[in-house]
Specification:
The chain is mostly helical. 69% of the residues lie in helices and 0% in strands.
Length: 443
Amino acid sequence: MALSETENSYQGGEEEEADVIVKTCVLGGFSESSETRTLIGSLPEIHEAERVKEVAIEKFKVIMDRYQEQPHLLDPHLEWMTEMLLNFTRSENSPPSLVHLSFKFLFVISKVRGYKIFMQLLPHEVSDVHPVLELMSRQDPKDLETWETRYMLLLWLSVACLIPFDLSRLDGHLESEGVKIREPIMERILAVAKTYLLVSDSPRDAASVLVSKFMTRPDVKHKRLGDFLDWSLTTISQTSARSVIEIMMLDGVLQSLAKLFKHGKRDDLLQYAPIVLRCLEQKQLSESSEAKLRKIYVKLIQRLGLTFLKPRLAAWRYQRGNRSLAANLAVSHAAAAAAAVSPETETQEQDEDYDIPEEVETVIEHLLVGLKDKETVVRWSAAKGIGRVTGRLPQELADDVVGSVLDCFSFQETDNAWHGGCLALAELGRRGLLLPSRLTDDL
């Protein structure tokens, strides 16, 4: 009897503790608004005191880290926080220490909320391009203490360079005001991007974002896209990846190409895709000892595969239909039969008119190899690539891909292959590409 009472009290204590954890994790809003405003407002007074400055940074990190699981709660307050910090960076009276400290705070915000959302808050007027570029040119890529400044400036430049005007007009405007320009804005931005793609710290990631935005501009892609791809492939070919620095250089260039083929238009990139694919095959990055390189290699390979294939939604994919039992019963047999015939006819017509490039087979082979990689992140990326590419294939070829994935489930294969096969099947099923006819196959 005493034991039962003890068990009941223990279970009750567990339930209370679980309730407390849930209440702690689920936040209702940004409750530290006034404290954060005071902390940001004090930066001009503390930026020279090293110890006080470090305490302020850690305090701000603690506040922001509470919202890692619910970053959307920061959205109503992001604008005023960003504006306050950017005012410090824009002011001519701000000493370098205050500018760097402000960018450290901005980096913390972007890390918690995500750079894709945070970039939308950065000013992107025509008048912002030159000041940001000038501030970027004054930075030292080798300064380990101020890498957050360079990271945020590269993101800011990624947004500012999207102005809907030809950049040559901006050069003419600046020259008419008597400002001495050593080279065009386009060349300066491209030089900055190339420089920071080859560094060994986090600004390398922001530089790849800059490339994906800048190189897809209409005026830039016509003048500099081919040259940039030549530079990228030359860098890949000449880098051996034997040292940490060379590994980082390869990572930066591969990241930029992956993002470029993701955001660029297919018509602009299709002519370069076979050349890039051949370069990657010769480099044999799938055999690299660095998981980081194998992962970005798989990402780039799948983006090349999607470039070879026309954007289309497979008409043959599995349709789940209505989730309401009453709605399903209300459908007549005649309507159901017509719905079953129509997609099949449409699929056959599309498949007959669509030729699949030979390079797609090479891409799929590399992705299938990626499913057996020893690192989970590589297998996961390969599985997503299998799903994306299969969704653009005719039904017959897509069924062959599913069959190749099922070959991973062999007793001669390793645990990694089985796990990669499961990830691929899950991705195919999520996209409606795993048809009911395949469900009866014995794994």
